Amino acid sequence: MTLPSRTRRLFLSIALLALGGIAYGGYFAIQGMLGRKALEETQLVSLPLADSLERAGREGKLVLVDVAAIWCPTCRRLDREVLAHPDVRRRITADFVFSRLEYDSTEGRAFHDRVGAAGFPTLWLVAPDGAVVKRLELTFEPRAFLAQLESPRP
Questions:
Q1: How confident is the model over 26-62, as pLDDT tens digits?
Q2: I want to staple 144 with a disulfide (CB 3.0 to 4.6 A). Which of 47, 94, 115, 139 is the partner?
Q3: For residue 4, is it within any domain?
Q4: Which residue intervals of 2-85 are DSSP H helices?
Q5: pTM for the whole thing?
Q6: In a domain, 20, yes or no
């Protein structure tokens, strides 16, 4: 017995939607895996923003806030080409407190909205009281990134 044409179209539509959902979920799963690997390569220790602000106050430092998304290819590129660079990592570790905020988290979106950012990755230098000191320009050149850290005030 064959199904009526309308029923076949319905089943086909449902199957295509299911396959699309699986492909979509698989894409983000793979992007997330690649993002976690790139983040690990930075070897930077990230603290929640509140902890970073507290530590920065105790140590007389600024917080380097990186608002990113684990599935974002541009964020991965920044991690691999800039934040994982030994000179950059050394400078961040010595002179700043690092806080990576995932855009998809409540904390990340709240910070992103508070500072009026458009897109990600975005990098900010923040005082221990939470005031934004400077937004860093996105660059994939480690030397250019380091130059922005030389004069932390705008």
A1: 666 776 676 777 778 888 889 999 999 999 999 999 9
A2: 139
A3: no
A4: 5-42, 49-59, 73-78
A5: 0.79
A6: no
